[in-house]
Design goal:
- The chain is an alpha/beta fold.
- It is built from 15 helices and 19 strands.
- It is globular.
Length: 469
């Protein structure tokens, strides 16, 4: 059997997925603890041992590629001119590249901010500012500050193209820098693809230099992208399909993890109703948001804080009584805690529903009524996802519950949040085998096969309309 092997060096677990090329089936998956503190190859070998225990070794691996969010994932600082414009555009470009944003700065940075950036744990800096032909002073000032304070990580320059010559003069021989297209060439126009690709290329060059990753290249062909970028790639391909394979159309992926909840939407998000005009920065068609305060274990204290007592109580129900502080500490202090009885599972479900609801509320746009000389109108900020047909869930809590659709249902529109443009009545799907990151890697080799395999393994669960009846 000829096979592809896909490896996901995750922040907690290293996952391996073996795909039979001829049959286009997932032969087996396995996972082991990520051993980034010593050598990630130890965790990889443990996962491979588990895989071999399942299927033996009677296969010929044709290609072996990986994605990674080990060693904290890809961490980026984003700089721009105006917080709501170029700074936000830089932030969205970095998130779409699969990065974790560890700082966002606007206007001319001062000395303390420059020092803060240099001393941060960022792997890369995305320097934006000014539309093409617009303001040039800010990005030039910030480039000088980064150079003068001794920036040691790569800088991706994605701002006003009129400043490129000046910035090259500032950085030459002193800063490792890369030039990408402006993330906002015109006012409110987003252009993130060039920076995403530049960031991905730098990531590929540098990931194997990170602690615990130095021996990866001895057995893995390439680490081609950060794990979140692989998930976004899979979602994009599944949404649009290929020339030979139909896609699902517009969709959202909700990934509830231990530390964060990621939401990926593949949709234009144009207004679904007449008399609505769009305000603010253009939305990326493939959009990713990361909620660092919404997670099942590391971030559980902030989940409870964000939810408030009333929302949490509504999801907990009345069957069990809880000391919320005790339950939170139990999970936060032991991130590996696994619920093994109905009472603990009920508490986890409630936390997952809060993550689902709040993360979608922040990801989707909103609409509000405004008054014009011709009468009342509506203005939309962000994406309108109300008619979105598909929501896909992934992550441990969704895979292990009997009713994942109940957690996903919490992400949909209700009159409690009347201005939100959340999906109203989507079909729910479940990535029960955690294949999305692997399918993003497969899509780098064969998009047709990736779509066919995903349609085979990502299953429908429940139905919102049915549940409403």
């Amino acid at each position: 059997m000829k096979a592809y092997l896909f490896v996901d060096f995750g922040s907690t677990n290293t996952k391996v997925t073996l795909v039979d090329i001829e049959e286009e089936i997932i032969v087996a998956t396995a996972r082991a603890y990520t051993t980034v503190e010593t050598d990630v190859m130890d965790g990889y070998r443990n996962a491979m041992k588990m895989l071999e225990d399942k299927v033996g070794t009677d296969y010929d691996i044709v290609q072996k590629i990986a994605c990674s969010s080990a060693a904290g994932g890809l961490k980026i600082v984003a700089l721009g001119l105006v917080p709501e414009l170029t700074s936000e555009a830089a932030k969205r470009a970095a998130l779409g590249a699969g990065a974790k944003i560890v700082g966002t700065y606007s206007h001319n940075i001062n000395k303390s901010e420059a020092k803060e950036i240099i001393e941060s744990n960022a792997d890369m800096i995305l320097l934006a500012g000014g539309t093409d032909g617009g303001n040039s002073e800010c990005i030039i000032h910030n480039a000088r500050m980064l150079r003068d304070f001794g920036v040691r990580v790569p800088v991706v320059v994605a701002g006003n193209k009129s400043c490129i010559d000046d910035i090259e003069d500032i950085f030459r021989d002193r800063v490792e820098y890369y030039i990408a297209e402006n993330v906002m060439p015109k006012l409110n126009q987003l252009n993130v693809e060039s920076s995403r690709e530049t960031i991905r290329s730098i990531f590929m060059e540098n990931i194997t230099k990170a602690k615990g990753m130095t021996h990866v290249k001895e057995v893995i062909s390439d680490i081609v992208m950060p794990t979140p970028a692989a998930v976004l790639k899979a979602a994009e391909v599944l949404s649009r399909g290929t020339e030979d394979e139909d896609g699902l159309g517009d969709l959202v992926v909700i990934d509830i993890g231990g530390a964060t909840t990621d939401v990926h939407s593949i949709a234009e998000g144009a207004p679904s109703k007449p008399s609505v005009f769009i305000r603010g920065l253009e939305e990326p068609y493939a959009k990713r948001t990361v909620e660092g305060d919404l997670g099942m274990r590391y971030s559980i204290p902030s989940v409870v804080e964000v939810a408030g007592k009333r929302m949490l109580r509504s999801y907990l129900g009345s069957e069990y009584e809880y000391d919320v502080v005790e339950e939170v500490e139990k999970r936060h202090n032991s991130p590996g805690f696994i619920s093994t009885n109905d009472r603990d599972m009920n508490f986890d479900y409630a936390i997952a529903k809060v993550c689902s609801r709040i993360s979608m509320l922040r990801h989707a746009g909103e609409v509000e009524q405004v008054y014009s000389p011709t009468g009342p109108m509506y203005q939309q900020t962000g994406k309108d996802l109300m008619d979105l047909p598909a929501v896909i869930g992934t992550g441990g809590i969704l895979a292990y519950t009997e009713h994942p659709e109940e957690i996903l249902k919490a992400s949909t529109f209700t009159m409690e949040e009347p201005q939100s443009l959340k999906p109203r009545n989507p079909q729910f799907y479940l990535d029960a085998d955690y294949i999305l990151s692997s399918m993003g890697l497969l899509a780098m080799i064969d998009e047709d096969m990736a779509v066919r395999v995903m349609k085979k393994y990502i299953k429908k669960v429940g139905n919102h309309s049915e549940m409403e009846e």
